[in-house]
Structure to design on (136 residues):
C-alpha cells in the first residue's frame, strides 16, 4: 500500500506540474502579444516624441532669433530716442541763446537810445548854457 500511495502522490504531482506548465505556456502565449504590442506602442510614442522635440527645438530657435532681432530693434530705437533728445536740447539751447541774444540786442538798443537821448539832452543843455552865457 505504501507503494500505491506513493504512486498516487507521484501521479497527482505530475498532473499538477503538467497543469502548471500548461498555465505557464498559456500565460506566455497571451503575454507575448501583449508585451509585443506594448513595445510597439512605446516605440511609436518614442518616435512621435522625438518628432515633437525636433519641432519644438526648431520653434525655440526661431523664437530666440525673433527675440534677438527685437532686442536689436529696441537698442536702435533707444539710440534714436537719445539722438532726438539731444537734437531737441540743441535746438532749445540755440533758441535760448537766440532769445538771449535778442534780449541783449534789445538792451543794447535801449542803452544806445538812452545814450542818444542823454547826449541830446547834454548838447541841448550845453547850447542853452551857451545862449545864457552869451546873454550875460
Amino acid at each position: 500500500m505504501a507503494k500505491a500511495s506513493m504512486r498516487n502522490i507521484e501521479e497527482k504531482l505530475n498532473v499538477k506540474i503538467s497543469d502548471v506548465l500548461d498555465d505557464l505556456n498559456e500565460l506566455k502565449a497571451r503575454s507575448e502579444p501583449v508585451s509585443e504590442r506594448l513595445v510597439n506602442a512605446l516605440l511609436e510614442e518614442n518616435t512621435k516624441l522625438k518628432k515633437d522635440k525636433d519641432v519644438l527645438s526648431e520653434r525655440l530657435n526661431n523664437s530666440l532669433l525673433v527675440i534677438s532681432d527685437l532686442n536689436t530693434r529696441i537698442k536702435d530705437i533707444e539710440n534714436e530716442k537719445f539722438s532726438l533728445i539731444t537734437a531737441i536740447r540743441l535746438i532749445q539751447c540755440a533758441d535760448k541763446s537766440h532769445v538771449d541774444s535778442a534780449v541783449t540786442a534789445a538792451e543794447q538798443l535801449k542803452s544806445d537810445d538812452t545814450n542818444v537821448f542823454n547826449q541830446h539832452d547834454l548838447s541841448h543843455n550845453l547850447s542853452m548854457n551857451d545862449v545864457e552865457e552869451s546873454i550875460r
Remarks:
- The mean pLDDT is 81.
